[in-house]
């Protein structure tokens, strides 16, 4: 496996701890509007192969291209050649017969350029479940702060000692999935709370919670989780009578109910994003 690196012109130094946006090429991409907003908030932008097409659709030029050009469109590759020739973009091109995904190699490329980068990823989650599971496996092994963005959701990879004050309005849905054995998690400010609760690998215990306080908080004491907050409610608007008892097999001994059984819980739709 080898990678050819091109640096066209002198690149400005990127500060330690800079926000780096990586844009992937998932078949079901994020909207151009979201990609553009994330790019505006980033200090450094990386196109991961077909992610270059997603950036072009958003009217954004990358600082770095990483990939083997097996999925980027011919028009995008031509545009990349112009960027490299003008000195405004770096390029790392990989052998298509490589052993690792473009994302893994892109993360390595970022590590060489930006110390302690804070990573934002988009267009990595839709349309290819095999790729998405590989993405999660890759991110679990990384040690940097990683935020995930797709239309309607924001996520974070959390490791031992990490805490997240969840940027969501009351009533938003929230989920977490343990990505390592012997993961221990606490949740506060949610409909069902946990206090140093041990979770099995890939357990569904953390799915479909509801934010009840602003801010709510999740803490990963050991192990690793991926946590998501959703900006669009899965339940209909209106008043819905929710009857879950403390004897429910799913929640008994696991979560502390914050509402009495039969309480009316507001299902008002959240109309604004959290980021």
Secondary structure blueprint with pairings:
Blueprint (H helix, E strand, L loop, with lengths): L2 E4 L12 E5 L8 H9 L3 E5 L2 H7 L6 E4 L6 H13 L3 E5 L7 H12 L4 E5 L6 H13 L4 E5 L2 E7 L2 E5 L6 E6 L4 E6 L3 E8 L9 E2 L5 E7 L1 E7 L8 E3 L14 E2 L6 E3 L9
Parallel strand pairs: 2-3, 2-6, 3-4, 4-5, 6-7
Antiparallel strand pairs: 1-5, 7-8, 8-15, 9-14, 10-13, 10-15, 11-12, 11-14, 12-17, 16-18
Which descriptors apply to this entry?
alpha/beta, Jelly Rolls, five-stranded antiparallel β-sheet, Rossmann fold, disordered C terminus, 275 residues, eleven-stranded mixed β-sheet, single chain
How are the strands of the biggest sheet laid out side by side?
1-5-4-3-2-6-7-8-15-10-13
Low-confidence stretches: 6-11, 233-275
N/C terminus separation: 38 Å
- CATH class of the largest domain, please? Alpha Beta
The pLDDT mean sits at: 83
Helix content: 10-25%
The CATH architecture classification of the largest domain is 3-Layer(aba) Sandwich
Globular, elongated, flat, extended or rod-shaped: what is the shape? Answer: elongated
């Amino acid at each position: 496996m080898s990678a050819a690196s091109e640096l066209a012109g002198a690149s400005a130094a990127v500060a330690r701890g800079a926000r780096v946006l990586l844009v992937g090429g998932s078949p079901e991409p994020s909207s151009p509007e979201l990609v553009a907003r994330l790019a505006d908030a980033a200090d450094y932008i990386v196109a991961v192969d077909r992610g270059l097409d997603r950036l072009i659709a958003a009217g954004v030029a990358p600082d770095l291209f990483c990939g083997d050009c097996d999925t980027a469109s011919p028009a995008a590759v031509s545009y990349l050649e112009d960027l490299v020739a003008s000195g405004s973009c770096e390029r790392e091109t990989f052998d298509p017969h490589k052993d690792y995904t473009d994302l893994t190699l892109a993360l390595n490329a970022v590590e060489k350029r930006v110390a302690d980068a804070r990573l934002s990823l988009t267009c990595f989650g839709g349309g290819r479940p095999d790729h998405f599971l590989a993405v999660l496996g890759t991110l679990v092994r990384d040690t940097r702060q990683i935020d995930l963005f797709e239309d309607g959701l924001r996520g974070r990879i959390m490791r031992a000692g990490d805490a997240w004050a969840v940027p969501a309005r009351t009533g938003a849905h929230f989920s977490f999935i343990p990505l390592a054995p012997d993961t221990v998690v606490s949740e506060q400010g949610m409909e069902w709370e946990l206090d140093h609760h041990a979770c099995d690998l890939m357990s569904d215990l953390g799915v479909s919670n509801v934010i009840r306080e602003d801010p709510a908080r999740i803490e990963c004491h050991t192990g690793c989780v991926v946590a998501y907050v959703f900006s669009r409610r899965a339940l209909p608007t209106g008043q819905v009578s929710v009857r879950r008892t403390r004897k429910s097999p799913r929640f008994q001994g696991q979560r502390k109910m914050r509402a009495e059984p039969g309480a009316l819980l507001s299902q008002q739709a959240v109309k604004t994003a959290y980021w």
